[in-house]
Design goal:
Elements (H helix, E strand, L loop, with lengths): L2 H22 L11 H16 L7 H13 L12 H5 L11 E4 L2 H11 L9 H6 L28 H16 L2 E8 L11 H9 L5 E9 L14 H11 L3 E6 L2 H10 L4 H21 L1
Parallel strand pairs: 1-2, 2-3, 3-4
Helix pairs in contact: 2-3, 5-10, 7-8, 10-11
This protein binds 2-acetamido-2-deoxy-beta-D-glucopyranose (3 copies).
One 2-acetamido-2-deoxy-beta-D-glucopyranose (NAG) binds next to strand 3.
Length: 291
Amino acid sequence: MTSSGTFIMIKVMTWFIMLLLCLDQSVPQFGTTPNIKHIVVGRCYHYITLVDPSLRFDCEEIWRHFEEAVIHRSSCNVAAEDYHQMFDAMQQPWPCDRFLFWSKTRALMHVYAAAVGHFWTLEDTLVGFMFNDLIWCGQDEESGFNFSSCPEWSAGRNHPVYSLWRQASQNFAEMACGNITVLLNGSIPNAFNRKSMFGSVELDSLNPQRVDHVNIKVATNLQGPYIESCSRGSIADLIQILQSRGFRWTCIDNDQTLMILQCLQDPKQPSCQSTFEQLVAQTQTLIHLNQ
Ligand SMILES: *[C@@H]1O[C@H](CO)[C@@H](O)[C@H](O)[C@H]1NC(C)=O
Ligand SMILES: *[C@@H]1O[C@H](CO)[C@@H](O)[C@H](O)[C@H]1NC(C)=O
Ligand SMILES: *[C@@H]1O[C@H](CO)[C@@H](O)[C@H](O)[C@H]1NC(C)=O
């Protein structure tokens, strides 16, 4: 067998193993997060007290609307619209030029948002802050939450957790204005996935009249693989959609700030050598300029 044949075979096998792993991930099931009321209400008070004291929201009322939306319905039948009263009770103003959208780049997004400081992601909004990482569902017969088991996220369009995030994502995208940033993962196929929250909800909710530029950043893992880029794969489809809807856009592969942040976490990667050298050279130039 030729070496390229071996390479393709290894690639196919890798994909097959990854597919099996993906299928396997859906097996564990959890019920509603224990102490959900205390967590949600506590996070709400945390937010309006410490994160943004200018907000005047009634955390108990928000909880009541949330509970009403969820517990009187069967576990897999809460529509996004059922949360409307809750969302009405927590409408938040957003500054322009700070919206950060992401797909399959969660860890890097957190590092990036923390380093750059001025980005707003869905997790920075009150609703995102309150419900991050929680699970919930009602019970078919009695009222109350089902703490022993909830359906899988993929079980249906009206999954209570999915519906809340879909509505929250839609609201977030509808409010986006000025320059927005989209952080995508170039180390996976379908970096722009029409089934992701970004591809299925947020993109369609962006308003070309409010958004000046959609600035796409494609980040790959330091060790690769290098599967998609601004000019390769599904990201070209995204650009096509943006163009047809009248958005102005830019797209950058391997943005330097992102590379540096990745390298700081894993400095021994061979690809970090040149990044650090460039950085040192730039810093030296800056020092010279300032002298
Ligand atoms: C890209 O996705 C893979 C698989 O989900 C993940 O392991 C990796 O950290 C992601 N890379 C970046 C740069 O976010
Ligand atoms: C919780 O959900 C599971 C799975 O949907 C169901 O079998 C179980 O009866 C529910 N528990 C209660 C108390 O309704
Ligand atoms: C918005 O993005 C465009 C393109 O990247 C850039 O030229 C412009 O300076 C940005 N404006 C602001 C306010 O950041």
